[in-house]
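QA checklist item 7 of 12: single-chain prediction sanity check.
[x] sequence parsed
[x] length recorded as 97
[x] structure emitted
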Amino acid sequence: MFEYEDDDVAGQDEDDQVRQQLVEAIENQLLATDPACVQAVLNKLTLVGMEREEVVEMMAYVLAVEIRQSLQQERGFDAGNYERMLRELPELPADET
């Protein structure tokens, strides 16, 4: 039983690390203004009253969904799909795992 709990904690730590890396990727995209839609989406959502941190977390989720889809479908990263999902925020895409 304790081993399961340790594995669960380790899994949570890994999830937190991945989440932080995705947030860092979004922050890097914002700094580089590449793709430009990342800054546009951030501006749009903060203008309607959303907190910046929440918006960045949502964008990181979208990035994770696109990466997961590209791996599952054995295709390259689809920048067009990524931009489409970003522009649909605050509606989150379905994560079909």
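[x] summary fact logged: The two ends are 27 Å apart (CA to CA).
[ ] second reviewer sign-off
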